[in-house]
Amino acid sequence: MRVLLNIIWLVFGGLWLALGYFLAGVVCCILIITIPFGIASFRIGVYALWPFGKTTVDKPGAGAASLIGNVIWILVAGIWLALAHITTAIAMAITIIGIPLAIANLKMVPISLMPLGKEIVSVDSRPQYV
């Protein structure tokens, strides 16, 4: 089921979202000081291509530098990327088939706002807490 949802996602919006993240990553890698933002943008771009079966978790040891970087990210790109996800989610939620895609879009809003200090992992490999 994940493969089918990922293929539908890729055709109906995932490719365009990923291209936006990749473009932002290229722009961020122009200056040395913004390379961490570019790497985060590339990471999210890959996640935006194939999101079903993946989730985000906090990186252990992410500290004050991640917090400061996330504040800068929100002001520069995070708000626009989050709005793109919300707009795409609303458009996808119009049909019954698009509802899981809209949920996946909304699931990506937090990482589009604050990508630093997060890690994208497979749903099967994340730790299970009892």
**Count of helix runs:** 5
Total strands: the figure is: 2
C-alpha geometry: globular
Spatial ordering of strands, largest sheet: 1-2
Rg over alpha carbons? 15 Å
Low-pLDDT windows of residues: none
Biggest β-sheet, characterized?
Answer: 2 strands, antiparallel
Helical fraction equals 55-70%
Oligomer designation: single chain
How are helices and strands ordered from N to C? HHEHHHE
Tell me the distance between the termini. 26 Å
Mean pLDDT: 86
Task: Provide the structure class.
Answer: mainly alpha
Strand content: 5-15%
Give your account of this protein's structure.
- The protein has 130 residues and is mainly alpha-helical.
- 65% of the residues lie in helices and 8% in strands.
- The protein is built from five helices and two strands.
- Helix 1 packs antiparallel against helix 2 (35-49), helix 1 packs across helix 3 (64-92) and helix 3 (64-92) packs antiparallel against helix 4 (99-107).
- The two termini are 26 Å apart.
